Amino acid sequence: MPIDFELSEGSQIAQRHYHEVAREKMRPISRRYDLAEHALPTEWVDYWWQEGRRGPGDRKAAPNDGFVTICLQAEELCWGDAGLYLRMPTPALGGSAVSSAGTEEQKKRFLSPFRAEGGHPIWGAMAITEPQAGSDAAAIEATAEYDPDTDEWILNGTKIFCTAGEGAATVDGGFVVVWATLDRSAGRGGIKSFVVPANTPGMELIGCEKKLGIRASDTATLRFEGCRVPSDHLLGSAEVKRSDTARSGDGAASNPQDKGFKGAMATFDASRPIVAAMATGVGRAALDFLKEELESQGIPIRHDAPPRELTAIERDVMEMEADLQAARLLTWRSAWMMNRGKRNNLEASMAKAKAGLAVTKITQKAVQLLGPVGYSKKLLVEKWMRDAKINDIYEGTQQINQLIVARRILDYPSSMLR
Amino acid sequence: MIDFEPTEEQALIIETVHQFAENEIRPAGREADERGLPPTAVIEAAHELGLVANRLPEAFGGGGDRSAVTGALIAEELAWGDLAIALSILSPGLIGIPVADLGTESQRARLLPGLIGERFVPGSLALVEPRFDFDAFRPRTTAKRDGDTILLDGVKCQVPWLEGGTHVLVIATEPEGLAAFLVPRDAAGLSVEPEQKMGTCGLPTVELALAGVRVADSDRLEADDAAVRLLIDRGRIALAAAGVGVARAAFETARDYARERETFGQPIATRQAIAFKLADMAIEIDGARLLAWEAAAAFDHGVRGPELTRLARLARDQVMRMSLQVADGAVQVFGGHGYIRDYLPELCLRNVTGFASFEALALI
Predict the structure, then answer these.
(1) CA–CA gap between residue B130 and residue B132 (Å, rounded)
(2) Are A216 and A284 within one domain?
(3) CA-based diameter of chain B, in Å?
(4) How far is B243 from chain A (nearest CA, A)?
(5) Which of A382, A394, B34, B170 is the most buried (most CB within 10 A)?
(6) What pLDDT, in 10s, does the model give residues A40-82?
């Protein structure tokens, strides 16, 4: 196949389908759940569980672009509402962790409930960040100790910023993937991830963060005190590689099951393209609105006008268009590489870094250009600006992704550049 | 279907052109800039590779490969070597591509064989005019009917003018819109003055004064306003791709230097202030390249009119901003050495500054 940017038929079907879902199911309740922070958006959650998760009915009929299609779904739904997207009853990042580091049996056991017909909505989540360890994931202090008498792991520690953590920790059928160390002296070689089913004794929901944006999303603090899970809830091997002590923000392993910390970090190579796509969706929401507003005021964007004749608004809009599209294409590239089974660690970080920063600036510019209208809560533009900012922070901050890109292009190990 | 991989044939072309750029173009770039002339031997050797001929019709001995994506890939690799030499090498296309696509049978028969022949024959295209408010889609150079002939009046600049060319394609405004005319270099009423520029000095260019230059109907391309606008869009896509190549050259040079240059006992690349700058360069280069590819692919898929104009404009403008950021960053990473003409970054910085005014200096 040659270089091509035309979506296959199946992807176009998905794109149209999720755009309609975003427009009809998400936008009408977007402001309500921004104001009612932490409230469960029941109509959205129920819709997703009963209908939404099946996707477009005719999807299987046509070929699609694989992982790119998943990015399209994220973009369209976050064009609808990023907070509601994060509140969808899905395995989310917990699912990515199980998929990339779990055995076939573990995948079946933990993920099949999300595909079961009927029942009630359930959530998955991943708990990595701790009060004193965010970007430096190798510095986490939560511990996992093996109890040979019961063949169980005992988890202790506190996790913060756990997206969808309330649902995952408290609704039966869901689970939280918890990162903990078997041996702090072993550095990142001692870090493993564990599947903790919802309502496991010893896992306590402390509360949810009050945030700048994505307020419909439950960002939980979880405390683990003597929390026991069966030994086969460990993802990957229990072996502690003592030589593997250097801290790193990157990772990506060819065989995640064998690579412990690196395997856990490899989850990000799959999740960063999706976060980049989510960012693109929020940025596009603001840019689409801005362009429609200008058009309705009879202000065209003249793509054929010479620089001297451009208005400041035209120049800004064109720059926003270019940056957004560059972010989108970098995202598609990193997703396409996953389809091909190519290592995309560098490209995923490039997409995430570009998209996070681009949409932060695009949404800020949209608020500025729209003046009091942009700042007002009558419209959603100010919300999109608040929602967009998180994309430059979570799943690796701008700076962590720059660090990963820099190490790759310089061919430096983490010990050379941190 | 979404795909980011060149075809096998394109991969082979990239490899060939890259090797040529590395072995022949890059080593000659500095001298070409200082002398104000491209190296004849390199230009002839590039001509033998048949990069422009490959794009021209098979009926005249060309390769008939019309893919704009292929053209973008070639432009990037050549410009990675040196922008001025790359534009010199591609200059036959400034006449060859418009004549192949829009010329009459007799124009094609008159000009294409020479461009595809054994020896390199440069092309010239005159679009840009020496005014700060120049509008590529509304040049002030006019074409007015006078009996059986057409009179061209106006002033052009940034017109490639390598030795050995026979014609210049002049873009002018008719009452009906844009039109293009094949004007012999020695036409009466046409005068040229060599230009001195900040960069791309290895590509000789001239300011071209057209004072009542008389051409015949047979010198006019069968191109309406939309067809000439399309040429301008194609020029922007080609320049965007070339700009990516220059930025990549600046970035790679800065990256390699940062790994070697030490401060306080460590390579400067181990400092985040430098490493993050390099990371941003790499990200912006890749993002801009994808915009250029997308515009080229859209052209190949038959997208025309305002949508192609939009894609080409966004790509060109992004490359203009990106390449300046990258080249300036490369000078900065080099510190004092970046300011010295022994090193590549300052040449890249001067060259990419041209993208703010370049139009139709190459076509895909």
Answers:
(1) 7
(2) no
(3) 78
(4) 16
(5) B170
(6) 999 999 999 999 999 887 656 678 899 999 999 999 999 999 9
